[in-house]
């Protein structure tokens, strides 16, 4: 409607929750990915159905940097025209929220998107139920390799440079908040919705596509959810590679 278009500068867009994921590609198509657009990243926050539990802040402090400043992970973040109002509303509900310029907010948003995508994919391809914490403790090398692979993709394709210490922040949050009780997902999840909201954002990373190919082989996606070009990029041809995924304590190539 025209009245909506006239007030487009007052729109507030949400990223982060499981049901929403990363919406930057949608905003880009509509030319809303700009400095003045109000956006909020709901990362370290529990959003229970209304009437059951109040909103709960899951962000945590995990130490101090070299200058003595506190190091936090899982904080919500806001940018754009209404970032002050967003901050005030979350503050009244005892939820930490940082306000920042769009460029910095975008880094935070992609860091969170990479975290959700990588940890759910690495844990979800297991034959047994795996939590986010399990991935950080037992499959740390796999998750780390994928995160750095995605970091290179973001820098090369989207001009986004992950901020210093991103790996430490991600693993701290996963270890402390990913036990299946305090996190968004009871266990790591691979589904058609997860592909659409998170996984398809990183299909230019060949290493990430290898995991998508493996998940497809194990029939964790619906029919034709993962495009053929993604499968071929990760595999060459389905069923022809030896997976480097850790099935236990060793890689399939024998390396610890």
Number of helices: 10
Percent of residues in helices: 40-55%
- What would you call the shape? globular
Low-pLDDT sequence parts: 237-256
Characteristics:
256 residues; two-stranded antiparallel sheet; globular
Give a quick summary of the entry.
The chain has 256 residues and is α/β, with parallel strands linked by helices. The chain contains ten helices and eight strands. α3 links the parallel β7 and β8.
Write a structural description.
The protein is an alpha/beta fold. Helix content is 42%, strand content 11%. The strands form 3 sheets. The chain has a 4-stranded mixed beta sheet, sandwiched between helices. Helix 4 (102-124) runs antiparallel to helix 6 (140-157). The chain is globular.
Strand-helix topology:
Elements: H1 2-6, E1 12-15, H2 24-29, E2 38-41, E3 45-46, E4 56-57, E5 60-64, E6 70-73, E7 76-79, H3 83-92, E8 97-99, H4 102-124, H5 132-138, H6 140-157, H7 166-177, H8 192-197, H9 206-217, H10 228-235
Parallel strand pairs: 1-2, 7-8
Antiparallel strand pairs: 2-7, 3-4, 5-6
Helix pairs in contact: 4-5, 4-6, 4-9, 5-7, 9-10
């Amino acid at each position: 409607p025209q009245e909506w278009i006239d007030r487009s500068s007052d729109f507030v867009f949400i990223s982060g929750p499981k049901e929403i994921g990363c919406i930057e590609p949608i905003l880009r198509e509509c030319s809303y990915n700009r400095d003045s657009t109000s956006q909020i990243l709901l990362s370290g926050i529990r959003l229970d159905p209304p009437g059951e539990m109040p909103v709960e802040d899951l962000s945590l402090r995990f130490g101090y940097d070299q200058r003595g400043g506190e190091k936090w992970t899982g904080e919500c973040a806001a940018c754009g025209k209404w970032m002050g109002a967003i901050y005030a509303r979350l503050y009244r509900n005892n939820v930490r929220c940082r306000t920042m310029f769009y460029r910095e907010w975008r880094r935070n948003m992609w860091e969170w998107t990479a975290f959700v995508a990588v940890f759910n994919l690495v844990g979800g391809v297991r034959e047994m139920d795996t939590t986010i914490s399990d991935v950080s403790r037992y499959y740390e090398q796999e998750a780390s390799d994928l995160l750095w692979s995605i970091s290179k993709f973001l820098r090369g394709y989207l001009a986004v440079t992950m901020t210093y210490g991103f790996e430490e922040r991600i693993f701290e949050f996963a270890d402390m908040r990913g036990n299946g009780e305090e996190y968004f997902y009871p266990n790591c999840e691979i589904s058609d919705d997860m592909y659409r909201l998170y996984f398809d954002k990183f299909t230019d990373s060949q290493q990430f596509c290898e995991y998508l190919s493996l998940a497809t082989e194990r029939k964790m996606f619906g029919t034709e959810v993962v495009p053929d070009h993604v499968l071929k990029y990760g595999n060459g041809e389905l069923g022809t590679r030896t997976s480097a995924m850790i099935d236990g304590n060793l890689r399939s190539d024998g390396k610890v």
